[in-house]
What we know:
There is one protein chain. This protein has helices spanning 11-26, 40-45, 57-66, 77-93, 108-121, 157-182, 191-196, 235-242, 260-273, 304-307, 320-329, 342-352, 365-375, 378-390, 395-407, and strands at residues 2-8, 30-35, 50-52, 101-106, 125-129, 201-202, 220-221, 248-250, 278-281, 296-299, 313-316, 333-335, 355-357. The N and C termini lie close together (7 Å). The chain is globular, with a radius of gyration of 21 Å. With 409 residues, the chain is an alpha/beta fold. It has two domains: 2-225 and 393-407, Glycogen Phosphorylase B (Rossmann fold), CATH 3.40.50; 235-390, Rossmann fold (3-Layer(aba) Sandwich), CATH 3.40.50.2000. The strands form two sheets. It has a seven-stranded parallel beta sheet, with helices on both faces. The chain has 15 helices and 13 strands. α4 runs parallel beside α5 and α9 crosses α13. The mean pLDDT is 94.
Amino acid sequence: MRVLLLSYGSRGDVEPMVGLALRLRERDVEAQVCAPPDFTELLEGAGLSLVPLGRSLKEMATEAVTGAAKPRKPLSMSERAAQMIATTYEAVAAVAEGCDAVVATGLVPAAAAARAVADRLGIPYRFVSYFPTYLPSPHHPPLAWPGHPFPADVTDNRVLWERNAELMNELFGEPVNAHRASIGLPPVDDVRAHVFTDRPWLAADPILAPWLRPADLDVAQTGVWIRPDERPLPADLEAFLAAGTPPVFVGFGSMPVRDAEDVARAAVEAVRAQGHRVLLSRGWAGLAPTDEGDDCFAVGEVNQQALFGRVAAVVHHGGAGTTTTAARAGAPQVVVPQMADQPYWAGRVAELGIGAAHEGPSLTAASLSAALATALAPETRARAKGVAEAIRTDGTTVAAELLRGATGG
Length: 409
């Protein structure tokens, strides 16, 4: 059996697919992972090969945040979608022969290309989301698309989701159907339903991110997909951890930020104000210490599964992966949401009492210190420890069983 796994997104979108690929390999199933080229090292470290999709996501994200893109005629979203569909399909179709199923997540145009590959080969296709609010439900509104805010006078979630479907057709209908026609496939009337299907998977923990019922979609919640990480922590990090009390971790993962030096300075000041040492994660934001204090240390990409159980708290952007890893470790959190699903995770952390949601994406020393005061409270740590014990870790096993059922393998 051979399965193609496509993830067009940040590390938090790709790493769960690596976890599923490793679980499938244990069952003698070959998994081919397709993702942005930024994650070649991640795949190689797991003994997997990567089929690269498009240009560096880090470069594109940094350009978008900093405004450093080279001058060129701006493309419409539909034009960008057409490019993504064509390039993704070309890369995926080249390696899909002999596959028995396709699993996709991430940006809609890339997933539409993956669906086209599956349709062309006549094999099962499954879409997976890592958070509930990407999927239509009467219990929550859709994410707002850039440049397309919700109507101020509409609060009914069903109406908002109807508008969301119309918007997806407006933005992606023409490029999706033009590409399908070019490879001999019939057109689709509803892009969102076509990409998400009527039974998508939700790879998130039921406690951290429950799928509320009743709902229109028959969502299969597998539980979170975890990539086991056995890497030791670097020796210099071990020395820093051993030299004093547990530090507060501050990092924004694969999220560039504006004015990274100011963000780092504010974060260090806030953590010190709470009486703790600081552990900065450089990440795509490029965070670094702003003075020579020996209470502050910076690291690159490390094993967060091993690290988060040894810190006082985790300050982060609110990606699904970082939120879940901190929750599994029983580490209190402060989520400083930047975009997309991150406000959802900030809200869940606050609702569960396992940390604090920072108000908005821009932090100051004062605003972060106030949020940290909540996260570092004894009752928050106790609640975080309790939730950690209840989080499931069998998500990839459940998904592998679902794939076997879908393919008859």
